[in-house]
UniProtKB/TrEMBL annotation:
One annotated GO molecular function: phosphatase activity
Organism this protein belongs to: Penicillium malachiteum
Coiled-coil segments on the chain, per record: none
CDD domains in alphabetical order: HP_HAP_like
Superkingdom, taxonomy of origin: Eukaryota
Keywords: Hydrolase
Organism placement in taxonomy: Eukaryota, Fungi, Dikarya, Ascomycota, Pezizomycotina
Signal peptide stretch: none
Record-given protein name: Acid phosphatase
Family statement drawn from the similarity comment of this UniProt entry: Belongs to the histidine acid phosphatase family.
InterPro entries the record matches: His_Pase_clade-2 (IPR000560), His_PPase_superfam (IPR029033), Histidine_acid_phosphatase (IPR050645)
Amino acid sequence: MVETAASSQDLSSWNGFQWRRKIETFGFNDEARVASGANGEIDGICQHGQLTDKGRETTYALGQRLRHLYVDQLGFMPQIKQDTEDMYLRATSITRALESMQQAFWGMYPPNARTVDFPPPVIVARPVNEETLFPNEGNCRRFRQLARLFADRAAARWNESEQMDYLNKIWSKYMPESSPKVAVDAHPRLSGIMDTINATDAHGSATKLPSDFYDKKGRAILDRIAVEEWFAGYNESQEYRKLGIGGLMGDVVDRMVSTAVDGGWRSETSASGSGNPGAGKSIKFAMSGCHDTTLAAILSSLGGFQNESWPPFTSSIAIELFSQAPSSRADAGTMLEEFSNPPVAAKKGGALSSLFGGSKSVPQQLAPSATARASLDSFPDESREIMRKHYVRIRYNDRPVRIPGCAAKPENHLPGDETFCTLDAFKSIVDKFTPKSWTTECMSNLNEGMFGPGDSERIPADS
């Protein structure tokens, strides 16, 4: 392992400190002993929350797929990278999320695809109390209340059901004496049993539980109940959407609007933010290490998670921004390298261009964005027209997602393909669950029940 360490007493110089780790645990009579793996190995043992070797393998493969699509096939990102100034890399404070993002980046840009003088990439992190890369139940009091209310409802609905009886028939004999019954809110919780089953199943015979846990019918019941417990709130409560995932989606939309309308989005926390912000590049590609609850929250809030199972390991969502080229200059199959402002006037080739890009003319300094959290109605007609010529597509595990609000009207999507949503329509959808102030709204409506005062936060069943 390598970590940064001061190489002088006055902290004027730093270096990489290489070291090996072994994990110690309790042995017989509490005697200390070294922890070992299934085959007796004592090196490379994971701590709680770290990415396993299998996880590193699959996230590296995800990065390779990103390279194949955005570098090799589309030519949107360069073959060789000399820096990450046009990339925005971010991860939560959970170790496996950071390691997943690092592995995916490494797969997309391995050492032979980086220049010799490639500087260390900047990876953005937030304090956990301000984290929006996952539904932050621990630091948003109102969301925590809502999550518990929906979990309690799931327990009341399923604990005495025929389906739960089946789970108890096959699994209760393995439960602890202090909590012998399988239930949504038992100890362990039903979702915790699911996590254990999925993790052990993913890593082969060395980690397998008794075969009863892999019963096909039992796992289908387990998945259905867990998905309802954790994600039904996004289908039913506007407030659940706002506090659970609205902050992140608001940021995503703000950045796409800046790209389309202003000619590019720039970040003071990207690699270009470490120097003169006026000299930095606009962001073309963002990659974030997040969680299964993040992905399901995004899809559910957009209406794209109907009848889906719990996201499998190494699941991913790609949120892509495309621009429409003038028909007189369209060259089908050729990707635009970047957006400009005006977004298409100075560009050549390509019916559509993918992801984030920016113009080569940059402002002298980064000022607060005038479009951040601005309502759609506040944009002038010229900007709205630009947004109607940009399209958003979401791909979940490499599969395009149909968003009902985009498919509902012909003017909301690309002719002939309902999975390409106009940026104007996409922003209209996301604006409905984007909080104006996440921290303030986390302290609002406390103890006001599942749907707020007067059921004001309930989403109509037909919407």
